[in-house]
Design a protein that fits this description.
alpha+beta, PAP2/HPO, 5 strands, Vanadium-containing Chloroperoxidase, domain 1, 2 domains, Phosphatase PAP2 family protein
């Protein structure tokens, strides 16, 4: 019934017969469509968010490959090594399990009830992407900053896919598989421990945000840089306290996440992404990154900086980046 009513209304409106050639309206006249595959980034504005995320995600993943050989998994971009991670040996894992247990015992014995409850609440809230924690540092809201939220979701999805592929290559056991007294505070995910997905994703999002908010997007915002990096570090540490990860998982995740963040920024503005490596088989019992969490991951004593990778602009990524930048006055 409804189609018949609409057809009748269109056919008699103002006494003008219905003309499909003009039915699209002034915003996008049918005459503008000539069938040419232009692949214009501006067309992203016409699609729903899930479609934009799929398109941007495709472009970010293009050319990325994870290879395994010996004890090492390497992420390469366009055939060039970007991040090389060497798997821990059994002795290192046993030592790391002892660190995790000591952290858990310290947490269980915490006398300050408020501190104990706060940390426990954080761990539970950070099981899913911790958007509320980033929005505590920045005026983020899905209605107020929708493009920034889309960019964050794109980075989260991108980082998640990459780290899961690296986890598959190394297949490292979880802490509770190494020591019976380690009691995970939440359900242990059904994938490998090394590197930490939360460390990878939190680092990637935090650093991308630090660049996004900066007047010079090639550098991190001078005021927001440290709080954002500290948040990523705390999210990773919470996963160790929760009994889900070894400290070395966080180190590897920070290194991988930092490269992925710089790679995303490179796809948006055209800049190099610093590369690095981490050999977990030689890790020492240093607890949870005893070094400065604000320093670039590749410059930590346990990691090695290996150079930089030139990253070309990808127009669809650049489009979303530009839309997000306008929400911050740029």
């Amino acid at each position: 019934m409804m189609p018949m009513v609409l057809d009748a209304a269109r056919g008699t409106a103002a006494g003008v017969p219905y003309d499909v050639a003009t039915a699209w309206g002034p915003a996008y006249p049918a005459a503008a469509f000539d069938g040419t595959a232009k692949d214009k980034p501006a067309d992203l504005a016409r699609w729903q968010p899930e479609v934009r995320l799929a398109v941007v995600g495709w472009d970010l993943r293009e050319g990325l490959v994870v290879t395994a050989g010996g004890r090492q998994a390497t992420l390469s971009v366009q055939g060039k090594a970007a991040v090389a991670l060497t798997s821990p040996n059994l002795g290192v894992l046993q030592e790391q399990a002892g660190i995790v247990l000591s952290q858990q015992m310290r947490f269980r014995g915490e006398d300050d009830f408020d501190v104990h409850q706060l940390r426990q609440a954080e761990i539970l809230m950070q099981v899913t992407p911790p958007m509320a924690f980033w929005s505590a540092l920045l005026p983020l809201h899905p209605d107020r900053t929708p493009s920034t939220y889309e960019l964050m979701q794109a980075v989260l999805g991108f980082a998640s896919d990459v780290v899961l592929r690296v986890k598959q290559a190394i297949a490292c056991p979880r802490p509770y598989e190494m020591h019976p007294d380690i009691l995970p505070m939440v359900l242990t995910p059904g994938h490998g421990s090394f590197p930490s997905g939360h460390a990878t994703e939190a680092t990637a999002v935090s650093i991308v945000l630090a660049h996004l908010l900066s007047a010079d997007p090639a550098a991190e915002h001078p005021q927001h840089r440290n709080p954002l990096r500290e948040l990523a570090w705390r999210i990773a540490r919470n996963r160790v306290i929760a009994g889900l990860h070894f400290p070395i998982d966080s180190t590897a995740g920070h290194l991988l996440g930092e490269f992925l963040a710089k790679y995303v920024v490179g796809c948006a503005i055209g800049r190099d992404a610093e590369t690095g490596s981490f050999d977990a088989s030689t890790a020492v019992a240093a607890g949870i990154r005893s070094t400065d969490p604000l320093s670039p991951a590749s410059q930590q004593p346990e990691c090695q900086a290996t150079g930089a990778l030139a990253v070309a602009v990808r127009p669809n990524v650049q489009w979303l980046w530009s839309k997000a930048r306008t929400e911050w006055g740029y």
